[in-house]
Write a structure and sequence with these properties.
- The chain is of the alpha/beta class and 217 residues long.
- The protein folds into two domains: 1-85, Methyltransferase, Methionine Synthase (B12-binding Domains), Chain A, domain 1; 91-216, 3-Layer(aba) Sandwich (Rossmann fold).
- The protein is 60% helix and 11% strand.
- The protein contains nine helices and five strands; from the N terminus they run ααααβαβαβαβαβα.
- It has a five-stranded parallel beta sheet with strand order 2-1-3-4-5, with helices on both faces.
- Strand 3, helix 7 (156-167) and strand 4 form a beta-alpha-beta unit.
- Helix 1 runs parallel beside helix 3 (35-55).
- The longest helix is centred in the middle third of the chain and has 24 residues, at 61-84.
- It starts with a helix and ends with a helix.
- The model has no long low-confidence stretch (mean pLDDT 94).
- GO terms for molecular function: cobalamin binding; metal ion binding; methionine synthase activity.
- Belongs to the methylamine corrinoid protein family.
- Residues 90-217 form the B12-binding domain.
Length: 217
């Protein structure tokens, strides 16, 4: 019965049915299902399936957005219970579009996928300068700093963040990830980023893997 309701949560989330997800999450809690099980095997599992389909071009941005909305609706019901049982996120990520750049669709998808992978997210929005990225990362004890750029003219601002981290002796403290339409592997290497990923699902997978490896070492 537990597996059945958790699978239903995953299936409705994949279809973007927020109302059904909310009701089923509440039903599962009322039946005494472990909140962590609802989160991991229902909400996060469903979101990762959507992410995989997005990566393979089987679904597109609108489908991801409605699935993410359904996940948020479920998490809102679940959050108080997760706090009660002391559920720890796998890591903390500070994410934003760099200074001078106001594009946020790609960044928003990354935020959703990172949430889906179990991260606690601090979304700084767009037009974010180096000081703001670093101040927030220091404030919250972030594991990951994720930067997005859609304009070639704003790409150098990614390097500024990494340079300031180095100047302040903080570079090794963070996993720095970059992405966006004009960004590529070669540019990421050139500016000293840890990882470049081409899409939001890969970003979540790489971030999760990197954080878990770092915590295990």
């Amino acid at each position: 019965m537990v597996a059945e309701i958790v699978n239903e949560i995953s299936e409705f989330l994949q279809k973007g049915r927020a109302k059904n997800v909310k009701k089923l999450v509440q039903d599962a809690l009322d039946q005494g299902v472990d909140p962590k099980e609802i989160l991991n095997d229902g909400l996060l599992a469903g979101m990762m399936i959507v992410g995989g389909k997005f990566k393979r071009n089987e679904v597109f941005v609108p489908e991801v957005l409605v699935a993410a909305r359904a996940m948020s609706a479920g998490v809102a019901i679940l959050e108080p219970k997760l706090i009660e049982v002391g559920n720890e996120p796998i890591g903390k990520a500070v994410v934003g579009t760099v200074k001078g750049d106001l594009h946020d669709i790609g960044k928003n998808l990354v935020v959703m996928m990172l949430k889906g992978a179990g991260f606690e997210i601090y979304d700084l929005g767009t037009d974010v300068d180096a000081d703001t990225f670093i101040a927030k990362a220091e404030e919250v004890g972030a594991d990951v700093i994720g930067m997005s750029a859609l304009l070639t003219t704003t790409m150098p601002n990614m390097k500024d963040v990494i340079d300031v981290l180095s100047e302040r002796g903080l570079r090794e403290k963070y996993i720095v990830m970059v992405g966006g339409a004009p960004v590529n592997e070669s540019f990421a290497e050139q500016i000293g980023a840890d990882f470049y990923t081409a899409d939001a699902t890969s970003a979540a997978e790489v971030a999760k893997d990197a954080v878990l490896k770092r915590k295990a070492s």
